[in-house]
Amino acid sequence: MKLETNIINTWCPGCGNFGILQAIKLVINELGCPKENIVLVSDIGCNSKIVDYLNINSFYSLHGRSIATALGIKLANPELKVIVFIGDGAALDEGISHLIHAAKRNSNITVIMHNNRLFALTTGQFTAVSPKDMKGKSTPYGSIENPINPLELMLSSNATFISRGYSSKIDHLKKLIIDGVNHQGFSFIEVMQPCISFFNNIKFLNERCYEAKNEKLDSKEKAMSLIKEWNYDEKGKIPLGVFYKINKPNFEAEASKHITKDKKINNLKCLKIHS
Ligand SMILES: Cc1ncc(C[n+]2csc(CCOP(=O)(O)OP(=O)(O)O)c2C)c(N)n1
Ligand code: SF4
Questions:
Q1: 75: left (phi over 0), alpha (psi -120 to 50) or beta
Q2: pLDDT tens per residue across span 245-262
């Protein structure tokens, strides 16, 4: 089956989303599961157009609501591999509560957050991860707020798989996504993604991103020290890789036990009624 669609790609030339699209194509081909068992859930934004360019079952959600939608899909059919594409604006502004709760629940879905550090489709407003002083449509004199660190947020929300990739490192990103999709719990993959038109940080990212080695994936302390190595400021190196990975019962598996119990109770009730 052809992975490409006939839809004309409207991303700006040079956009980091092309690298993520390339990585996800490799992931789908290498995952080894039937393509009909994969569901892509997209948000709203430049990032979300990715599902238009992939011939895979997908669901266009509302802005900031894609994670809740994905959780519902996974709950209804736990056999599916559910992958969310979401921007930093949707994940950390409009939809931040969904992100925190999906992590807390350890929902067995994968969230790929395209981090271009602003709202791109609406032409460059600041988000929770925009640098202080960033000038844009909603901050003509520069943002007066400091960015949050989303990976720190994920660690404190008890996400069981936390990682970071870069759209220009396609092979590395492909491996991260495969690892995240195969993880039996909530996997969060932040992807640094330059927005060429409104916040072109490609040189900054090329100079700073490096593949970090983490031998202690189950250590929160080690994860925090890697996560804190770069704090969304304009200095230092930016580590890439898996920072944290632990096994814990996931939301859908736990919920299914209750559903099975419920079914048994209902069956007993039916038997009583009929006897
Ligand atoms: C609830 C809601 N708020 C605002 C919008 C307008 N809106 C559409 S796309 C977008 C920007 C998306 O930014 P982001 O999520 O960071 O994704 P990007 O475009 O950067 O990939 C906004 C604000 C909307 N559609 N719905
Ligand atoms: S506006 Fe930015 S994020 Fe959107 S397609 Fe263009 S370069 Fe990519």
A1: alpha
A2: 999 999 999 999 987 776
